[in-house]
Every structure is written in structure tokens, then in C-alpha cells.
Amino acid sequence: MKLSELELLAEQRRKRLVEVVYRAKAGHIGGDLSCLNVLTALYFHVMQGIDPQGNPPLRGGREGAPERDRFVLSKGHCVEALYVTLEARGFLKSEVLDTLGQFGSVLSGHPTIEVPGIEVNSGALGHGLPIGVGMALAAKMDQKPYRTYVLMGDGEQGEGSIYEAAMAANRYHLDNLVAIIDRNHLQISGNTEDVMPIDSIHDRWSAFGWEVTTMNGDDMGSIISTFDAIDYQSGKPHLLVSETTKGRGVSFMEGIAKWHHGVLNEEQCKAAIAEIEERIKALESSL
Fold first, then answer.
1. Which of 121, 115, 201 is nearest to 166 (CA)?
2. With b meaning 16 or more CB within 10 Å and e meaning fewer, what string describes 205-225?
3. Taking a C-beta distance cutoff of 8 angstroms, is the pair 132, 166 a contact?
């Protein structure tokens, strides 16, 4: 998929996300919007072997293709962004996605393996990277080519289990593991540097033996070039610090902490969709 097509797809998913969260009257829309570009890149450019027809992972007694790349959404409260991505990738039917927030829906507020395309239950912060380390280590032990990608939040970096996993990944030379931090600088209780400072991310993770790269997570070109440059034979695990904007793509949400899990009213929903549709039109006309 070309860069322009990925940019258009991300905007289309952004519109769908706003619609879904508005209808559900719940969701963590600020963080959803900040990580949506990365999810689009992962599922439509980076990850290999994922096939909604041939490998619904770990659901209904059927396991996925053993050599498929794995993805773990450690910041599981942003599952709505994953849902709209899985819908676009063909794992999740639109009529199922529309049940989000309704009684009896298979869709929860965090990822569960009852949903096609989701590898593992997640969302207890600090757990995703340890699971990802296990997946990557299993690939090494079984001599399988698949890679594991883990998306974490920046507020999540206060969890000690992350650093135990970071040490283990270095110890076992897991160069088939890529962790991404959605660095939008805001968590539920405010700016990360006021709550638990983590501006030393680069030095901290480098000291743990990881290859650390910073990318502009608001820019699809930066995301793609960064993923494409990863050396999977380096003997070191990889950390991508994705500098993003909370509420990316909806002007009245951007950089505002209350939209961590804010609920849109009808007027706000219409305004957000109108703004996104303008960008969609511009991108469509340039194709």
C-alpha cells in the first residue's frame, strides 16, 4: 500500500472511530486517536502473515497461522482504535463493531480473545511487554520467523513489570521484538512529567540494551520509514518512541487531558466528523 493510501486509510479509520465511540457513549478517544496511525501502519504495511480468512487467532478452537506476526495492545484501554483497524483488515464485521457499548456485545472495553484478530487479553497496564517477550522468545526457541509488536502507553511506563521484561528481552537477544511507546505526553491524571517523569526514555531503554529510535507518530511517512529501517538481525530488541498528539486529528481534542476518556456530544461528533471528512476529500483528490 502506498504512503498516500495509508494516510487516507488512517483518516477513514479516524472518522469511523469517532462514530463508534460516539454511538457507544464510552471509550478512550484521546489515546485512540494518537495511536491510530501506528496501528494502520502495522496492519497494512508492517506485519506479515495475518489473514482474516485463514487465521482467526485463538478463537473458536482454531489457531492462527503459526508463522504470523503477533501484536499485543498493552495500552488496552485504547481498544477502540484496534477494533476499527481490525474491521478495515477484515477480521471484524461492521455490524459487530456497531454493537460496542451494548449489552451482550462480544466487544469489551479492553482486548479479549473472543474477538477475531486479537492474540491475547490485555489492558492491565504493564503486562503487554512481558507477554510480548514470551512470544518473541518462543519464536526464537522454535526457530520461527515471526515477529512480535507491542504498543504501550507513556503513562504505562510507571509499571515496574515493563522493566523486568526489558531486561529479559536484552538477555535473550530478542531482535524479533519491537515495542512502541505512544508518547502523547498525557495520561488520565495529567502530563506524564508531572505524574511520573519519563523524559529519559532514550537513555533508560538504551541502558537496558535496546535499540531506541524516535519517530513522529503523527506523520505516516515517519512511521513507515522508521519501521522499514529496523534491523531484525541486530541481536537487540527494538523500542520506537512514537511522538504523538493526544486526540490527533480532532482539533478541539488535541493536547487536552480530559479527552483521555471524554464522551462526545452530538454537536462535537458532527464537528469532528466534518473536520476529518475535509482531510479525506483532500487525500482522495490527490490519489
1. 201
2. beebebbbbbbebbebebbbe
3. no
The CA angle 260-265-270, to the nearest 5 degrees, is: 105
**Coil/strand/helix, residue 273:** helix
What are φ and ψ of residue 211, in 5° steps?
-85, 125
**Cβ neighbours, 10 Å, residue 100:** 22
Q: Averaged over 2-21, what is the pLDDT?
A: 97
Amino acid at 128: G
Give the helix/strand (H/E) hosting 41: helix 29-41
**pLDDT tier for residue 110 given thresholds of 50, 70 and 90:** very high
What are the contacts of 274-278 at 24+ separation with CB within 8 A?
275/249, 275/250, 275/251, 276/11, 276/14, 276/15, 276/18, 276/249, 276/250, 277/15
Phi-psi region of 247 (alpha: psi -120 to 50; beta: other; left: phi over 0): left
Which pLDDT value is given to residue 61? Answer: 41
As a whole number of angstroms, the distance between CA 33 and CA 259 comes to: 10
Euclidean distance between CA atoms 163 and 167, whole angstroms: 6
Would the CA dihedral through 218, 224, 225, 231 be positive or negative? positive
Find all residues with CB under 8 Å of 285, minimum gap 6, and list them.
Answer: none
Please report the pLDDT score of residue 63 as a whole number. 63
Average pLDDT, the chain: 93
Grid cell digits, residue 43: 496492519
